[in-house]
Write a structure and sequence with these properties.
Layout: H1 2-11, H2 28-67, H3 73-98
């Protein structure tokens, strides 16, 4: 009786999501490589997100310093341009790195 209860619980589980590379059925190496590629893409997105948060935090701090007179407004503008350039370049590099796998 308990075995039937367990079987009905397992029947309600969703199917496993295949990696984005869609390996052939039974290709375990391709399946693992696909999951590694997807994990690397998620790691790259995480790095880009952390970079965006870091640049935004420093930008707000520089803006606050300029409002209090401890920094020039030109520094805020220069930081915005340099920060945006760094984020665009990092996003480009992470996009290119995702294609390596």
């Amino acid at each position: 009786m308990e075995l039937l209860d367990l079987w009905s619980l397992m029947a309600a589980l969703p199917t496993q999501v295949a990696p984005s590379t869609a390996p052939a059925s039974g290709d375990w190496i391709g399946l693992i490589a696909g999951y590694i590629k997807d994990g690397a893409a998620v790691l790259g997105l995480t790095v880009a997100t952390v970079g965006f948060i870091w640049v935004a935090y420093i930008g707000f701090a520089k803006f606050n310093d300029a409002r209090q007179g401890r920094a020039e407004w030109a520094e805020v503008g220069i930081f915005a341009v340099v920060g945006a350039t760094i984020l665009i370049f990092a996003s480009y590099l992470l996009t290119e790195a995702a294609g390596v796998f």
